[in-house]
Amino acid sequence: KGDVHFMAMHNDITEVTDFSPPPFPRSDLILKPDDAEWTQSRHSVVDKVRAKVVEKRVRLKEHFQDFDPLRKGFCTASQVKTVFTLLDLAKFIDRNDFEQLVGMYTREDGMFCYADFVADCDREFVTPDLEKDPLAQTSMPDSNSTFIARRNKVTMGSERMHAFTWLEEKIRSKVKSYRINMLPAFKDMDRTHTGHCSRNQFYRVMMTMGFQDLSEEEVNLIAENYCDLGNHLDFNYVDFMKSIDVPSEDVELAIQQLQAPYQGFEPASYFSPTGKVMRHQTGILA
């Protein structure tokens, strides 16, 4: 009497107790669906890669030739991905663009013709068969050559573009009337001097500068036009300031003179190279 059958109690507790480890904590990435149409979707993958190659000033041929010892002009699709990774271009090419690119330059046996691809990308640097036209004039790559790679905006419809134009003109009129200098406030938000700030920082600057009447919809409308890095977060305040705070002609002339290369002092010429006296239009001796 008074004894406890501890083994029976242990068995009863063990049957209902779960000794399996707890589930591993997870944080799944759930992306919000984006129905916006971006400007880069209008261009082919070759145009986007060419613009990025011109921007970074990289050479593709030598890296492809490392995988082609016989110089046949062909390599595998995995080697193409390796070259893009070495040149830091893989992060700018998604899976769909890569598959489209491989399909454009792949022959029947599955080999990628990198020679044709490199020739298409180098058109901004070289002109084929230039020696056959001695009078041909070539031009260096400019900002338009890399614009596709550097900017990616949301495509706006006619109605939203009309509303954006009216809103921008409203802000421009207020900035001009009250002489509001917003550029220093934007630069305080841009510590790394990239020319971009976040959308929330743009909203804070506008509220600080006296634009409390801006609604969330109007802020989103402005951000659609000036978020040009392929996302809805990075706001290009440099282009925004150029649009709403247009400098006068005198200021533009002063900026051009300040940024122009140095020119030394040149004394007035009183005599021509032949020894004749040079006269002004008024007829007075120089």
Protein model, in words:
The protein is mainly alpha-helical and 286 residues long. It has a two-stranded antiparallel ribbon. Helices cover 47% and strands 3% of the residues. The protein starts with 5 loop residues before the first helix and ends in a 27-residue tail after the last helix. Helix 2 (45-56) packs across helix 7 (143-150) and helix 8 packs across helix 11. The longest helix is centred in the middle third of the chain and has 21 residues, at 158-178. It has helices spanning 6-16, 45-56, 61-65, 77-86, 95-105, 114-121, 143-150, 158-178, 183-189, 199-208, 216-226, 237-244, 249-259; strands spanning 74-75, 112-113, 196-198, 234-236. 12% of the residues are buried. The mean pLDDT is 87.
Q: Any key phrases for this structure?
A:
286 residues; mainly alpha; two-stranded antiparallel ribbon; 4 strands; flat
What best-fitting shape do the alpha-carbon axes yield?
flat
Tell me the total number of β-strands: 4
Query: How does the major sheet shape up?
Result: 2 strands, antiparallel
**How far from one another are the termini?**
135 Å
Binned, the helix content reads 40-55%
Spans of 5+ residues with little confidence (pLDDT < 50)? Answer: none
Spatial strand arrangement across the major sheet: 1-2
- Write down the Rg: 32 Å
Mean pLDDT: 87
The number of helices is: 13
Q: Please trace the helix and strand order, writing H or E for each element.
A: HHHEHHEHHHHEHHEHH
- The share of residues in extended strands comes to under 5%
Structural class of the helix and strand makeup?
mainly alpha
